[in-house]
Design brief:
CBS_dom, 3-stranded mixed beta sheet, CBS domain, CBS domain-containing protein, Diverse_CBS-Domain, CBS-domain, CBS_dom_sf
């Protein structure tokens, strides 16, 4: 296995994201439509946070475990903004960060996705699925 391969070779470049003015219902629609688990939250091309499907489910479950799920989710989603639910302390990598370094960061920090930035601008996202697909191709 080659050691110095940049993450740009495996990252997703077609970014699906949110803005701070989007709501959590839109986030759920995007998660389901595109079968993804992480959405960068941006202002223009600058990342300000990450929202995971787990973040969304955590607030839905916490508020609706004894209720009828669909109607309660809408109410719960309206109680919170994207900024209240997203992770704000975003750890990012550059497109030249090696795949090995990305794998190490994901393992050490117990993340499942990292935004990829160039000069502070979001250019991609790399997930554990991207890494697994890369490693599978190596065998």
């Amino acid at each position: 296995m080659r050691q110095r391969i940049p993450v740009s070779t495996i990252m997703t470049k077609n970014i699906i994201g949110l803005t701070r003015s989007d709501d959590l219902e839109r986030a759920e629609i995007l998660f389901n439509r595109y079968k993804i688990k992480h959405l960068p939250v941006v202002t223009g091309e600058v990342i300000i946070g990450m929202l995971s499907y787990t973040d969304l489910m955590r607030i839905s479950f916490a508020e609706s475990r004894d209720e009828v799920s669909n109607s309660v989710e809408s109410v719960v989603y309206n109680m919170f903004s994207i900024e209240q639910v997203m992770s704000k302390d975003v750890v990012a990598v550059t497109s030249e960060t090696t795949i090995k370094e990305v794998a190490q960061t994901l393992a050490d920090r117990e993340f499942h996705a990292l935004p990829v930035l160039e000069n502070g601008i979001l250019v991609g996202i790399v997930t554990t699925t991207d890494l697994l697909n890369y490693f599978i191709k190596q065998f």
